[in-house]
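Table S2 (continued). Query chain:
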Amino acid sequence: MSVPRARPVQRELYDNEERGRGLRLVAALAAGWGADERRWGKIVWAGLEGRG
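Corresponding output:
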């Protein structure tokens, strides 16, 4: 099984689609997010801020 090397990007949303909302949810909840490439694939990360 090969790992796609494309970096994740938010895409345009359409009401009738059932997929493609993952990064929008992450961006809405996280203080920041990104992706790091590794020899074997990629890691998508998100930074969250605590309240209180």
